[in-house]
Amino acid sequence: MPLRDLSIGLGVIVIWALNIIVIKVGVTDMPPLLLTTLRFALVALLLVPFHPVARHQLPFLALLSLTFGTLHFALLFIGLGQAEAGTGALLVQMGTPFATLLAVIVLKERLGLRRLIGLILSFGGMVVLAGGPTLPAPLPTALLLTSALGWAISQLLIKRGPNVSPLALAGWVALFAIPQVALGSWWFERDQLAALGAAGWVGWGAVFYTAVMSSIVAYGAWYGLLRRHPVNRVVPLTLLVPVLAVGLGVLILGDTLGPHKLIGGGLVIAGIGLIVLRFKGGARRQAS
């Protein structure tokens, strides 16, 4: 990969790692579902007018708004409000093992020894994290793992669904998710108008960052890299996201960094690495 594209890829990783920190800080200034609603509204406003889709694609996008918009993003925002940023980032990374299991169960994909070992390491890392003091209470842990499951389900839907450009998908999923998350905010949260009036640069900055930088700028650059380079050269960079998020959580938010997080997080990342990385020998066998 040329140095320019590698720099772009690393820049995207930094944006996504910072996104975890921004969400964590943002939900201290604004209720999480209200923040999520505003994020979706801004994404839809900036993307939908410029990325039309065919009418037959709308039911698919509406379904994806449930799994990717509400189940993944809304629960991510709620869960991070009650968990350390680094631990939350590691929990959400379980979306990759979940997606692998779903692909085996639903799509009848072959698991293979390498990916099986990766699954064992990932879930073993979860067990180690569960024994540590940084794991949040059962409810936010369940919310973050459900968010990871929502991401995994969404990847299977995208794989089997109609071909929609990435930015069109992001915009229309956001549009369909707005009433869902707004209804959740109305039902579970209080004094939204007062919260909007009292929100400072932290809350509004989180809306801008999560919508523009993370969803539009980063994903646009990322899919550009995927068009120019093989997937197995680009996707492994995402393993740096939880590592950087843990480090930023320690430096910026004062999160703890104990042995359970180091060992458990290391096992999770190593397991995901075995799942997503393609080694040269395996690539030659697949090509033959």
TrEMBL record:
<feature type="transmembrane region" description="Helical">
    <location>
        <begin position="7"/>
        <end position="27"/>
    </location>
</feature>
<feature type="transmembrane region" description="Helical">
    <location>
        <begin position="234"/>
        <end position="254"/>
    </location>
</feature>
<feature type="transmembrane region" description="Helical">
    <location>
        <begin position="86"/>
        <end position="107"/>
    </location>
</feature>
<dbReference type="GO" id="GO:0016020">
    <property type="term" value="C:membrane"/>
</dbReference>
<keyword id="KW-0812">Transmembrane</keyword>
<feature type="transmembrane region" description="Helical">
    <location>
        <begin position="141"/>
        <end position="158"/>
    </location>
</feature>
<feature type="transmembrane region" description="Helical">
    <location>
        <begin position="60"/>
        <end position="80"/>
    </location>
</feature>
<feature type="transmembrane region" description="Helical">
    <location>
        <begin position="33"/>
        <end position="53"/>
    </location>
</feature>
<dbReference type="InterPro" id="IPR037185">
    <property type="entry name" value="EmrE-like"/>
</dbReference>
<dbReference type="InterPro" id="IPR050638">
    <property type="entry name" value="AA-Vitamin_Transporters"/>
</dbReference>
<feature type="transmembrane region" description="Helical">
    <location>
        <begin position="260"/>
        <end position="279"/>
    </location>
</feature>
<feature type="transmembrane region" description="Helical">
    <location>
        <begin position="116"/>
        <end position="135"/>
    </location>
</feature>
<keyword id="KW-0472">Membrane</keyword>
<feature type="transmembrane region" description="Helical">
    <location>
        <begin position="200"/>
        <end position="222"/>
    </location>
</feature>
<dbReference type="InterPro" id="IPR000620">
    <property type="entry name" value="EamA_dom"/>
</dbReference>
<dbReference type="Pfam" id="PF00892">
    <property type="entry name" value="EamA"/>
</dbReference>
<feature type="domain" description="EamA">
    <location>
        <begin position="143"/>
        <end position="276"/>
    </location>
</feature>
<protein>
    <submittedName>
        <fullName>O-acetylserine/cysteine efflux transporter</fullName>
    </submittedName>
</protein>
<feature type="domain" description="EamA">
    <location>
        <begin position="9"/>
        <end position="129"/>
    </location>
</feature>
<feature type="transmembrane region" description="Helical">
    <location>
        <begin position="167"/>
        <end position="188"/>
    </location>
</feature>
<keyword id="KW-1133">Transmembrane helix</keyword>
